[in-house]
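[stage:ingest] chain + small molecule (2-acetamido-2-deoxy-beta-D-glucopyranose)
[stage:ingest] validated
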Amino acid sequence: MDPLDLIRTPLSWGLVLLGILFCAFNRDRIRKSLKQPIFRSRITTCQPEKAAPEYSEDAYYSIEPLHNFDVDKEEPLKIRPFKPKFHMTMAIENTTLSDLVAMDKTYRDRLKIRSELIQQERHEVLACNPRAVPAVLELYTWLTCTYLPTRFPLLFTPTGPHLQNNITGALLPLHMSNADAALQLLGENIDDEFLFLLPSDALEDKRKYRLEAFVNCFPSGFNTRAKLGLLLADIHTPVPGYAQKLEKSMDRFFAALPVGRIVKRCNWSISTNGQLFCLKGNHMSEAELAAKEKEEGGMEEIDLTKTVLRCERQTLHRLPESRALVFAFKTYLYPIQELRDEGSGEVLADAIDGLGLGSVPGMKVYKRQVVWGEKVKAFLRGEITA
Ligand SMILES: *[C@@H]1O[C@H](CO)[C@@H](O)[C@H](O)[C@H]1NC(C)=O
Ligand SMILES: *[C@@H]1O[C@H](CO)[C@@H](O)[C@H](O)[C@H]1NC(C)=O
Ligand SMILES: *[C@@H]1O[C@H](CO)[C@@H](O)[C@H](O)[C@H]1NC(C)=O
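[stage:predict] done
[stage:export] tokens:
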């Protein structure tokens, strides 16, 4: 026998023995170290789910009820979004789906105006392209089956296959198969406009959104029908600064908005006609201004008793099934006398000056400040009466 074998054998036995002892001694530690990676990986796969609840579909079904809501006592929101300088930004804030529809004591009167407009101006206030049918029906069903009866239980009561509007007595079928009829019912029962946007189906711009359906009774100086099928950017062509300041971030934001998130913003302008349904005349281009200035008596008389601060409370959210975006807004009109009486006259007058002082000076012409600015400011500052 090789003498080396004698050494080798006890040595190897010794090593084996040591190994066994080491393992026995560290049994718990080894077990833990084997478990830990598994445990850790479970945590990492859990975390995204945990951080996401506000972006989950649950958000559509956890609507907070307003149990004692008395629509006839609720004052309209006082929206005062003006700043001393007008800067073009998205200026959005996060909100909840419960906050989608704002109701107040103007509801009855507004519904009357809306129903009349839907009868008389149907072609202008309501439309649906075939590709938006599922989106319209999805929003409709969610509103009738979930949102309205949960949020406003005193105003909307489910009765059999219908939802009853407690103010007008109208019966809304819980489910609809005709998108035009669904838009009409929404328009007649909710004082909000709903515009549906879908990703473009053209290859070159498929992450950009197009307007594919709407019920819009209160357009503020544009014809919604003429915008049907257009990309966001083309809808905003007349808005100065939009292409330079906003287009890219808007397109990115619209494409990325996840299911379950809803954002809100407000805007304002001065309307000298005070009309809720306004297809044109609230905006102006540089060329139109030049033409007016040449014309004898081209600048119109401003009637301060008809002049209002016009604000929109806008929201944007995505439908979970069709994945369409819903742009919704409610219009508020405040006579400028009210602004002066409440002591906001000076701040609004400064903001009117500020239209030409911010990131897009062209706003001054676009919002027709050049036409009504001096007179409205003088009134707001208490220098003249109406
Ligand atoms: C709104 O929520 C988003 C996502 O949770 C967040 O990134 C953003 O900062 C929030 N915005 C504001 C204005 O709080
Ligand atoms: C409306 O609601 C009130 C109180 O909930 C109820 O007394 C009344 O009968 C309802 N009216 C209609 C038309 O449903
Ligand atoms: C508010 O913004 C929308 C576009 O987001 C525009 O169409 C509308 O004219 C603006 N309304 C007011 C009152 O400024």
